[in-house]
Amino acid sequence: MATFPEALNGYDAGTPANNTPAGTDAVGTQLDDHLRDIKANVKNAGALTPSSTSTAAVTMAVTDFNKLLLVDPSAAARTVSVLTAAAALAGFRVGIKNVSGANNVIVHRSGSNTIDGEASITLSATNQAVMLACNGTTWYRTSTHTPPLVHADPSASVAVFTSSGTWTKPANLLYAIIEVQGGGGGGGGTVNPDSDAAGSGTGGGGGGYARKLLLAAALGSTETVTVGAAASGGNGSASTATAGNASTFAVAGGTDIVGNGGSGGSQNTSTGGSGVNVEAGVAGGSATGGDINITGSATGPSVSMGNDSWSATGAQALGFSSPGGSGFFGGGGGGSTATEAASVNGSDGTNGGGGGGGAAGDTGGAATGGDGGAGLVIVTQYLSA
Question: Considering the entire predicted model, what is its pTM?
Answer without folding.
Answer: 0.59
